[in-house]
TrEMBL record, chains A, B:
Domain APS kinase: 30-185
Pathway: Sulfur metabolism; hydrogen sulfide biosynthesis; sulfite from sulfate: step 2/3
Alphabetical list of Gene3D superfamilies matching this protein: P-loop containing nucleotide triphosphate hydrolases
GO MF annotation: an example: ATP binding
Species name: Lactuca sativa
Family affiliation: Belongs to the APS kinase family.
Protein name as annotated: Adenylyl-sulfate kinase
Role according to the record: Catalyzes the synthesis of activated sulfate.
Listed GO biological process terms: cysteine biosynthetic process; sulfate assimilation
Length: 214, 214
């Protein structure tokens, strides 16, 4: 099937003969995006790895799109200007959407500091034709700057404080916390959750919402 | 694990705890890219759909990246200048690489007229550490311009001949046929192969090269 869509007018939309439902039935899961946002050092990559491992152990096919890794490939022609950060997030959102459409549980791990950029990705992954057909779940790593800076796993806060990195999120560039997120990871009684605890929280959410079965 | 790589120096590479091999074992196949190149009307999308269907019927997880479709999403900020065409192909190559790494058989269907752009994608999907670790297979739709123009499924050749589309591949922009391709689809005794025949040719190749099992 073929239909003309939008501009430019010489681009057609090709309907694939194998649809998302068929792919999902094949691997017995539902494609979606787990979008992990938070400050540098808040544990995004740790959660992404742990979640990926936990899903795999349950026989689910997931894939991590890590903000840093993507900047070595797809987004290697982007810098850190406000415009480039927005384009960085947009591209990852578009790729995550393709992975979800392919039937995978896509784990996107990016600082994604600006609300408007995250909201654009959420809109991209919401099917206006269906109630509650939101396929992007936001996980907010709600760790204080103090905790993240104390961890400083890459030594970047130190560089930012010394003025050797400009526009560093949390130091001289804002992080806008989500106003609504599906899952929040935070300290409890002054203790940070373990990687397994964090992954468990997300897996429970996915399971309760039916994404671990076709 | 974490290691510092290339420039910019503030980007780190995160090793995922679940690797390609584990994903491949889970779904019993090997991730790779089938790159279909050829003129508009040469049957790229037809082959992509048919191949996708055939692989699905064998229980294999594949996904079509269609050049036209991607221009509605990831590449919607690109036009048709030589520079933008190159960036269009580069981004599709990078995404195809992610899909292959995820363990899927990714079917990329794009005119991809320039040899240098296709070669760049092939290089991207070749692991220099391993002999014969090429994960991109080029399928050349070797149909004459005459055949493609007679089909003209989107009416684009007509517009190009009337001067209403500029820089149209095959008319006033070159198509550089592959010098080496893994699979060639062509007329036999003046008869074009059926979608099933074409898909069968590619599936045989994938099977013989071990990609339909982990």
């Amino acid at each position: 099937m073929m239909s003309v869509m939008g501009n430019p007018t010489n681009i057609f939309w090709h309907e694939s003969t194998v649809g998302k439902t068929e792919r999902q039935n094949l691997i017995n899961q539902q494609g979606c995006v787990v979008w992990i946002t938070g400050l540098s050092g808040s544990g995004k990559s740790t959660l992404a790895c742990s979640l990926n491992r936990e899903l795999h152990s349950r026989g689910k096919l997931s894939y991590v799109l890590d903000g840093d890794n993507v900047r070595h490939g797809l987004n290697k022609n982007l810098g850190f200007s406000s415009e480039d950060r927005t384009e960085n997030i947009r591209r990852v959102g578009e790729v995550a959407k393709l992975f979800a459409d392919a039937g995978l549980i896509c784990i996107a791990s990016l600082i994604s500091p600006y609300r408007k950029d995250r909201d654009a990705c959420r809109a991209m992954l919401t099917d206006a034709n269906f109630i509650e057909a939101i396929l992007l779940f936001c996980v907010f790593m709600n760790m204080s700057l103090e905790v993240c800076e104390r961890r400083d796993p890459k030594g970047l806060y130190k560089l930012a404080r010394a003025g050797k990195i400009k526009g560093f999120t949390g130091i001289d560039d804002p992080y806008e916390p989500p106003l609504n997120c599906e899952i929040m990871i935070e300290e409890k009684d002054g203790v940070c959750p373990t990687p397994c605890d964090m992954a468990g929280q997300v897996v429970s959410y996915l399971d309760e919402n039916g994404f671990l079965h076709a």
